[in-house]
Amino acid sequence: MRTQMRLMALLLTLGLLLTACGPAAQPAAPTAAPAKPAESKPADSTAAKPAAPAAQPAATTAPAKPAEAAKPAADAKPAADAKPVAVSNPPTTPEMVDSIDLMGKNVEVVYWHNRPQKDQELLQQMLDEFSKTNPYGIKARPEIAGASYPDVYNKVSAAIQAGQPPEVSVAYQNQAAFYRAQGAIVDLNPFLKSKKYGLSEEDQKDYFQTFLDSDINPQFQGERLGFPTQRSIEVMYYNADWLKQLGYNEVPKDWKTWEEAACKASDPAANKYGWAFRHDASNFASQVFSRGGRILSPDASAYVFNSEAGVETVAMIQRMFKNKCAVEIPTSERNGEQNRFAAGQILFTFASSSGLPFYQEAIGKGANFKWDIDPLPNGGKPAVNLYGASVSVYKTTPEKELAAWLMIKYLGEKAQTTKWAVNTGYLPVRESARADVVAAYKSDPKWGAAADSYARMFAWFQYAMVESPVAGYDPVRDLIDKEIATKAATDPNADPKKLVDDGVAKANNILKENAPKR
Amino acid sequence: MIGAAAQETTTARRPGQSARLSVGGVLMQIAIVLAALMAVAPFAFMVTTSFKTYASVINNVIWPWFPLGSEVPQLGNFWEAITTVGWDSQWGIYLFFRYLANSLIVAGCIVAGSLITSTLAAYALARMDLPGKQVLFVLVLVTMMMPEDLTIVPKLVMMFNLRWYNTYLGLIVPSLVSVFSIFLLRQFFMQIPRDLFEAALIDGMGHLRFLISVVVPLSKPALLTVGLLNFIWAWDAFKWPLLVTRDSSMRVLGVGLQQFMQGQGTQVHLLMAFAAMVIVPVLVLYFLAQKQFREGILNTGLKG
Question: Domain count of chain B?
Answer without folding.
Answer: 1
